[in-house]
Amino acid sequence: MECAFAITGKDFVLIASDMSAGRSIIQMKSNENKITPVGPNLAMACGGEPGDTSRFADYVDRNLRLYHIRNNFPLPPPSAASWVRRILAESIRSRSPYAVNVLLGGFDTTTSKPHLYWLDYLGTKADIPYAAQGVGMYVTLSTMDKWWYENIERREALDVLNKCVDEVKKRVTIKFDFNCVLIDKDGVHSLDLKSQDPIAELEAKVAAMKPSDPEPIIPSSDAPAIAAA
Amino acid sequence: MEYNGGSVVAMIGKDCVAIASDLRLGQQSVGVAMNFDKVFPVNDKLYYGLPGLATDVYTLREQLRFRVNMYRMKEEREITPKTFTHLVSSTLYEKRFGPYFIEPVVAGLPSPTELDPHPKPFISTMDTIGCITTPKDFAVAGTASNKLFGVAEGLWEPDLEPEDLFETISQTLLNAVDRDALSGWGAIVHVITHDKVITRQLRARMD
Amino acid sequence: MARRYDSRTTIFSPEGRLYQVEYAMEAISHAGTVLAVLSKEGIAIAAEKKVTGKLLDLSLAPGGEGMGGEGAEAWMGGGGEKIFLLNNNILAGLAGITSDANSLVNFARNRAQQYLFSYNEDIPVELLVQRLCDMKQGYTQFGGLRPFGVSLIYIGWDALYGFQLYQSDPSGNYSGWKATCIGANHSSATSLLKQDYKDDLSLEDAKSLCLKTMSKTMDSIKLSSEKLEFATMTLHPETGQPLAKIYRPSELDELLRTLELGGTKEEQIGVGEGTGGGGGGEGNVAMST
């Protein structure tokens, strides 16, 4: 039982996902991170069969990194999405398919455009400005339909995201905790949804980091750490 | 077929053909995207539509693009609508015992050759494993196909000029998908004539 | 002594050389010249065609007035004998053994399409060059095979690095250039290019430099479409997408006339005349273009 949603804005993508792990009606963990950075400016929220999700995220991450190392540049988001789709489409017709649903968000540094892709376990791909996966789909899509607009700014987008979180809390019987990342030209950043102004915190962090840390050419395995809340 | 929804229709006119699809991508009853075009160009005289399971729409599209590109470079000419139909058909039959859930529709204008200086406009359609039919009037496929049959039967007439054909195919598609919960959310129409392709996006009921 | 190390591509000679690879390169230095010039606005490539005599039936072969074209038309084999479209965004000029070249072109086109299939994006230029060179390298190492007798010049565009110009040889080495040349007289052509190349060339300058150097390199003074193939890679003014243009013979003659390099058709050219290569080339012109 999972719930993830994502919003694109002017020059960024926000992805939020629940952090619950368990079986049937029992929750065993409430701080399981389900959002994996899979490139310097690319992150993926995976839902579905628990074992498959982490295996799949790892497989994608390692392959995209291999591409980065071999070719000295990362695969841009549209191509990465096409590649992930191909993996899922080939997997569904194989003997052991991955049962994972994916939200893939990224910022294309060559064209300076944000991208968001909705992918399901069959290999269906949709290129859309806002998306939801799992049980959240039924309540958050309409929330985003109402509040999202083109070229939305960071704080406004985060407001929409919080509205979605509230909606899930209000309408879905299962209790969820959420974590969230923001992807922009500077990379993948984790946002603390409980903080008063996560965007200001992020801006301060990026400003403090920038002069001394030029963007690493090859992402180190622990680079954009999304600490488990 | 009913998992993602979507419909395609093609019609023959006088020295022109038209092909149109809706733009919905759903996951059963939930609408996911309203920009999911199911009609793709091969060249400016030949288009094809792939209604059905969305993952197979992409897979088949990419497969066909690969094969057409190689055909074009090796043969040093454009593929004809008839040859393309057989290419699609054999691509589908390759997966005879685990088929792509797609019912393709092909629409094209063959270019005049020495042997056939006045070729007729061409449309064709297939089932999921590539059995070809080449109607002389119109071809329909997708979740609204039963409704499309009815409306097209009533509206289509022989030898329509490009603008009239556009009106006929647009009305056929819009009115058919309005009665189908799994198709709609906008539509796109291409009318192929000898000197140009007219492409228009249509607004439809967005519910 | 050399005999013992000749027949195997995979064995080093005592001096540490691979003779078969060197012989392949030698074969290419007799082949028709291919020359390309890079500019910020696009790339020009010219290739010398060998004239093989009047009995050769070219009526169905590419190379007539039907050849060439822009964009989608270039797909359909602009195909002369020397310049090929490898993908939407990449053209190549080949020097060496034609049959080897055809097989390489086919391989390259397949790999480019495979990339498009996986990533839904045109293959970056250097990646395709790498793919070809990986294969060429393989033939210098594995037993019982001979290396490809082909050098290539690749011109292309991708979103990451813009316009690029590469050259590769039978050993599988490749390198990027601002202007380069392969085939007959390549060293003299390269030094000419070195003299005349400037960093701020326009596309028109690049075209003219390309053809002028070509005219100095080839034996005959007057150039014409009968002996030359020409192509450019630019960006489409409206869509910003890469646009390959393989010149039709009439277009090329027109261009040559404006540059005052010829362009008029000469009288029948006999075999051996204007073949450019330094001696020895005439015997097997049909094989080595």
Automatic annotation (TrEMBL), chain A:
Start-end of Low complexity biased regions: 218-229
Record GO biological process: proteasomal protein catabolic process
Gene3D superfamilies noted in UniProt: Glutamine Phosphoribosylpyrophosphate, subunit 1, domain 1
PROSITE patterns: PROTEASOME_BETA_1 (PS00854), PROTEASOME_BETA_2 (PS51476)
Location of this chain's protein in the cell: Cytoplasm; Nucleus
GO CC aspect terms: cytoplasm; nucleus; proteasome core complex, beta-subunit complex
InterPro entries listed in its UniProt record: Ntn_hydrolases_N, Proteasome_beta2, Proteasome_bsu_CS, Proteasome_sua/b, Proteasome_suB-type
Region feature (Disordered): 210-229
Entries under SUPFAM superfamilies matching the protein: N-terminal nucleophile aminohydrolases (Ntn hydrolases) (SSF56235)
CDD domains: proteasome_beta_type_2
Keywords associated with the record: Cytoplasm, Nucleus, Proteasome
Quaternary structure, from the entry: Component of the proteasome complex. The 26S proteasome consists of a 20S proteasome core and two 19S regulatory subunits. The 20S proteasome core is composed of 28 subunits that are arranged in four stacked rings, resulting in a barrel-shaped structure. The two end rings are each formed by seven alpha subunits, and the two central rings are each formed by seven beta subunits. The catalytic chamber with the active sites is on the inside of the barrel.
Function comment: Component of the proteasome, a multicatalytic proteinase complex which is characterized by its ability to cleave peptides with Arg, Phe, Tyr, Leu, and Glu adjacent to the leaving group at neutral or slightly basic pH. The proteasome has an ATP-dependent proteolytic activity.
UniProt cross-references to PANTHER family, sorted A to Z: METALLOPROTEASE TLDD (PTHR32194), PROTEASOME SUBUNIT BETA TYPE-1 (PTHR32194:SF2)
Family: Belongs to the peptidase T1B family.
Protein name in the entry: Proteasome subunit beta
The species this protein was found in: Tremella mesenterica
UniProtKB/TrEMBL annotation, chain B:
UniProt cross-references to CDD domains, sorted A to Z: proteasome_beta_type_3
Keyword Repeat: no
Keyword Transport belongs to the record: no
Highest taxon of the lineage: Eukaryota
GO cellular component, one term: proteasome core complex, beta-subunit complex
GO terms for biological process, alphabetical: proteasome-mediated ubiquitin-dependent protein catabolic process
Family the entry assigns: Belongs to the peptidase T1B family.
Localization, UniProt: Cytoplasm; Nucleus
Protein name: Proteasome subunit beta
Quaternary structure note: Component of the proteasome complex. The 26S proteasome consists of a 20S proteasome core and two 19S regulatory subunits. The 20S proteasome core is composed of 28 subunits that are arranged in four stacked rings, resulting in a barrel-shaped structure. The two end rings are each formed by seven alpha subunits, and the two central rings are each formed by seven beta subunits. The catalytic chamber with the active sites is on the inside of the barrel.
Listed Pfam families: Proteasome (PF00227)
InterPro entries found in the cross-reference section: Ntn_hydrolases_N, Proteasome_beta_3, Proteasome_bsu_CS, Proteasome_sua/b, Proteasome_suB-type
Lineage: Eukaryota, Fungi, Dikarya, Basidiomycota, Agaricomycotina
Main function: Component of the proteasome, a multicatalytic proteinase complex which is characterized by its ability to cleave peptides with Arg, Phe, Tyr, Leu, and Glu adjacent to the leaving group at neutral or slightly basic pH. The proteasome has an ATP-dependent proteolytic activity.
Record's keyword terms, sorted: Cytoplasm, Nucleus, Proteasome
TrEMBL record, chain C:
Role noted for this protein: The proteasome is a multicatalytic proteinase complex which is characterized by its ability to cleave peptides with Arg, Phe, Tyr, Leu, and Glu adjacent to the leaving group at neutral or slightly basic pH. The proteasome has an ATP-dependent proteolytic activity.
UniProt protein name: Proteasome subunit alpha type
Cellular compartments per GO CC: cytoplasm; nucleus; proteasome core complex, alpha-subunit complex
Subcellular location: Cytoplasm; Nucleus
Source organism (scientific name): Tremella mesenterica
Main location: cytoplasm
Subunit composition and interactions: The 26S proteasome consists of a 20S proteasome core and two 19S regulatory subunits.
Family: Belongs to the peptidase T1A family.
Superkingdom assignment: Eukaryota
Disordered, as annotated region: 268-289
GO terms (BP aspect): ubiquitin-dependent protein catabolic process
Listed PROSITE patterns: PROTEASOME_ALPHA_1, PROTEASOME_ALPHA_2
